[in-house]
Every structure is written in C-alpha cells, then in structure tokens.
Design goal:
- The chain is of the alpha+beta class.
- It folds into 2 domains: 230 residues, H-NOX domain (Alpha-Beta Complex), CATH 3.90.1520; 116 residues, Orthogonal Bundle (Arc Repressor Mutant, subunit A), CATH 1.10.10.60.
- Helix content is 54%, strand content 8%.
- The protein contains 17 helices and 8 strands.
- Helix 1 packs parallel to helix 4 and helix 6 packs antiparallel against helix 7.
- The chain starts with a strand and ends in a 5-residue tail after the last helix.
Length: 361
C-alpha cells in the first residue's frame, strides 16, 4: 500500500498542521462556483477568513485545513445542501490540479495515474488523506481518511463525498464516460436521499461500511490513459518532486513557528523575536511566510484559536481562565474572537463541541 502524508492530527507540543497554510484551495474555488449556481455568494465568508477574491485567483495561494473547514461548514449551512460535496467533486476537471493534473493525463494506466495522484496529493489541494491497496480478489482499492478525527461531521461527510465524486468524475474524463467503480463504500450513515449516489457513481453504494473506499475492477485499473507520454510524464515528475521538496520546507517552517507560539502562550513572541530565534532577518522571514501564503499574524491567531478550542473542551475551566491562558486581555476580547472565528459565543461553542464528542446529552 502506498500512502502520502496529508494534514496531521494534533501535535503533542500543542499545535497541529490544521493551522498551517499549505493546501491549494482547489476545493474552495469549485465550492464557490457550485454555491454561485445555487444563488449563494461565499465571497464575503472567504474574506472573513482572510481569502479575498484577489488571493483566491492567485496560483500561489495556500490555505490552512482550518480555513478550508470553516468555509465548508458555513457553506453547508447557507446552501442547506447535504449533497454539496458530491456536486463540488462532480464539477471538477484535471486542469484544476495544475501540473499534477497534466502528469496524470500523461501517465500510463488509470491505476498508475491514481497512485501518482496519491504520491503527490499534498500538491493537489486534497483535504483528505489518500492511500491505495489491493483487494483479495485482485481489485484496486482507493482509501480516504480524515486527518482530524474530531472534525465536524458535516465537513467530514462533505470531504469524503467530494473526494470520491472527483475521483470518479476525473477518471471518466481520462479513460472514458463508461468508467464505473465496482463499489463505493462510505463509513458514515445513509443519507435521506441515496438515489443521487447511484446516479453519480453508477455502481453499488454502501453506507455504514468499515472504511471509506472506492473499489475498482482490475480491467479498469489497467485501462490505458489516452494522453500517455512517458517522456512528458517523467519530465513533469521532476518538477513535481522539486515542488514537493519546497512544500516540505514550507511545512517545516510553519510548524516550527506554530510550536514556538504554542509553547509561549499566553504571551505571543514578537515577529522580531521569532526572526532572531531563527537567525534570520525580519525581511527574509516575512518573505518566506509570504511564499507559504500566510503571515505571522495569521499563523499566531490560528495557534491561539486552536488553543481556545482545546481549552473549551475542559468543562472545569471558566471563560476567564481560558482568556488568560490563550493570551486575551479579558473575557470580552475572547468573546469577540470566538464570534469572529465561529459566529457564535464561547459558551455555545463549548456546548456544541462537547455534544459532538458525546460528553453531554
């Protein structure tokens, strides 16, 4: 089985990759398009999380897992469409993946193209963690996992459905409209309307399964890609490897800074102090963060937001305790921040989080 890393779970030192801006916003771009078709304008929402229209048009833009999840959660509320993930996935094209999409089109077989996509998934804008394997009957199996087990259930369903719909849609664009998986399996419960799943996937769809996966017949897995070109494929992979190395460097920088902020709370180190800690100039550090698509202020706020959410899960702590530990001047400042992040009060957010984890009735 081959596995490529995605956004990780909570770091033992008090932060997680969910605050790092390392994800290409492909899903969000198509989400805006699909929401527009339903008369819902998500642009004001994007602006509130720091993603204005100019940034969204930038090929260099990266968003954090937390930013993406917040937009998806609100989009589900605004559209009231529990099948939004299916529609966003079905609207996509290989060109949305940029150079990686070009590499997939030049690959040899459908199976190898999917394995290439999994290998370079950190460059594709994926918000799930993909892996591949082989079934006992010789089938080719594509697995999807969520990087954060505590993710909002609605966002979780959206991400899995978006991922599966995009895989099937892009496979049909690559090898022909007749492509259908042998089976599609969701670990979540069956929705109210299941006819949409059969219509989209064209195969048996199972809910309440042990894992989220797509099962593909060997014959389809061996299907030749119409645009296969070994020379183009090899040269494109060289560029992708360079991008992956750069992405790892960016992730390392962001994670080191996040850990530094998390360990210093309730005090947030100044930008100048961070530059001194990393033996670099403020100008160089600011440029490196810009290359990552973020700022020190946004990174520090993301860490503080995560700390607040962790503290809210401890019922014995008062809002005053949480404000002090997260570096807020008082409870009012904490309330304003939580309202900005979640559109609700700290008390209501705490109740929702504890209820979601089964700690309250």
């Amino acid at each position: 089985m081959s596995v490529a890393s995605g956004p990780g779970p909570a770091d033992p030192q008090g932060t997680s990759r969910s605050t790092s801006a390392t994800i290409q916003p492909n899903i969000l771009r198509y989400l805006v398009m699909v929401a527009d078709e339903r008369g819902v304008d998500l642009r004001p929402l994007l602006s509130r999380v720091g993603l204005d229209e100019t940034l969204m048009r930038s090929a260099a833009l990266r968003v954090s897992y937390r930013q993406g999840s917040a937009v998806i959660r609100r989009a589900l509320e605004l559209t009231r469409d529990e099948h939004l993930g299916l529609k966003v996935g079905a609207a996509q094209h290989l060109t949305a993946w940029g150079l990686l999409g070009f590499a997939l089109m030049a690959d040899d077989t459908l199976r190898h193209a999917i394995e290439t996509g999994v290998k370079y998934q950190n460059l594709s804008g994926a918000m799930t963690v993909w892996s591949t394997g082989q079934g006992e009957d010789g089938t080719f199996v594509l697995h999807a996992d969520l990087p954060d087990p505590a993710i909002d259930p609605g966002v979780a369903s959206f991400l899995i459905e978006e991922g599966f719909a995009s895989v099937v849609t892009l496979s049909r664009l690559a090898v022909g409209p007749a492509f259908t998986p042998r089976a599609v399996e969701f670990s979540g419960p069956a929705p109210r309307q299941i006819d949409l799943y059969g219509a989209l996937f064209g195969c048996p769809v199972r809910f309440g399964a042990p894992a989220d996966r797509i099962v593909i017949d060997p014959a389809w897995a061996r299907a030749r890609m119409p645009g296969r070109d070994p020379v183009t494929y090899a040269s494109t992979l060289e560029t992708l490897d360079t991008q992956m190395a750069s992405r790892h460097d960016q992730q390392d920088l962001l994670e080191v800074l996040e850990v530094s902020v998390a360990q210093s709370l309730p005090v947030i180190p100044s930008f100048g102090e961070q530059a001194r800690r990393h033996a670099t100039s403020e100008r160089t550090l600011r440029r490196r963060l810009a290359d990552c698509g973020t700022t020190y202020e946004a990174l520090a706020e993301g860490v503080r937001r995560e700390r607040v959410e962790q503290l809210l899960l401890r019922p014995e702590l008062t809002l005053r305790d949480i404000a002090r530990r997260a570096g807020f001047s008082d409870e009012r400042a904490l309330r304003r921040a939580v309202r900005r992040w979640h559109g609700t009060s700290p008390v209501q957010l705490r109740e929702r989080m504890l209820r979601g984890m089964g700690w309250t009735d």
